[in-house]
Amino acid sequence: MTNQVWEYTEAARILGEAVSVRKERVRFVVITKTKLLWIGLAILGLLALLAVVTTRTLPIVGDELQLRRADVVLDAGHGGIDSGAHDGAGVYEKDIVLDVVLRMREYLARYGLTVELTRETDQDLSGFETHRRGRHRQDLANRVKIMNQGQVAVSIHVNAIADPSVHGAVVFYARGSEQGKLLAEKVLAELGKVQHLNHSFVVPRENIYVLRNTSVPTILVELGFISNAEDKAKLITESYRQTLAEAVSRGILDYFEVELEEDVTPDGAEGEEGPLAPEESSRQGEGFFRRWLPFLFK
């Protein structure tokens, strides 16, 4: 094999060793700096395209992208031995909100969203069968675990306070959560189309457990006040609960930038008018206003 003399300028670099030898011929792979530049730009372009696609399909939590199992997790507040707010005459928050959440799941599913629920029946999530110390906190902690499995989470409640004149929906979000605030505003805007709002703005909170402890954009929706006669009269009807379910769902769909159809209400969706039929065990529920204290301040 004869000696070979290679002359090259700074414009070219020889990468690696000889890759083949045949009859005194030596072949080297030579890549110019110009080629390296184009290869680098092509790789950067592919990475940028991948980032755009990923950003459109994955939820943003803080500054990180996280893959989630469901698009939306719906939380029907209370349940089981915890009735939530009630009117003292057989109307319980836990029954109203579960009915609304089940209707929401059906509505959202028709638009292709995957929906998970924290509960599908009249149950408490603490695992305790009696009112014992730590039951309420354990219930909330278990709800949060489920709510963190979605891209967003929506907790549904109804309200009750001492002043019977207060009425209308209220939407809370975690203070400092821009995505939570956006979701809350979308939902409140839709609720404002179907009822007269007592609050025309969303409310930031730091002391609501499910808002403070979730890692995804989360809102808490108070659909109305059963301490207000007009609100209660509507909340116990199936048609109004369907209206509320669709309104909150439209806000969620707007957040996800899903184009709405003019009318996707199934035939007979309004159903029969009439009050809910709470189970007998509901009468063991926690006091009329107690939900505001343990739920908001624990």
Question: Any overview of this molecule?
Answer:
The chain has two domains: 12-57; 64-297, 3-Layer(aba) Sandwich (Aminopeptidase), CATH 3.40.630. It has eight helices and twelve strands. The protein has helices at 33-57, 93-109, 135-147, 178-191, 209-212, 229-235, 238-255, 292-297; strands spanning 12-14, 20-22, 25-27, 30-32, 60-61, 64-65, 70-76, 115-117, 150-159, 170-174, 203-205, 218-225. Strands 8-7-9-12-10-11 form a six-stranded mixed β-sheet, with helices on both faces. The protein has a two-stranded antiparallel ribbon with strand order 1-4. It has a two-stranded antiparallel ribbon with strand order 2-3. Strand 7, helix 2 (93-109) and strand 8 form a beta-alpha-beta unit. Helix 2 packs across helix 7 (238-255) and helix 4 (178-191) packs antiparallel against helix 7. The chain is elongated, with a radius of gyration of 29 Å. The chain starts with 11 loop residues before the first strand and ends with a helix. Residues 1-22, 52-67, 264-275 and 277-298 have low confidence and may be disordered.
Number of structural domains: 2
Global structural class = alpha/beta
CATH architecture of the largest domain: 3-Layer(aba) Sandwich
Alpha-carbon Rg, integer:
29 Å
Low-confidence stretches: 1-22, 52-67, 264-275, 277-298
Please give the largest β-sheet: 6 strands, mixed
Q: Say which CATH homologous superfamily of the largest domain is assigned.
A: Zn-dependent exopeptidases
Could you give the distance between the termini? Answer: 84 Å
Number of helices: 8
The proportion of residues forming helix, as a percent range, comes to 25-40%
Broad CATH class of the largest domain: Alpha Beta
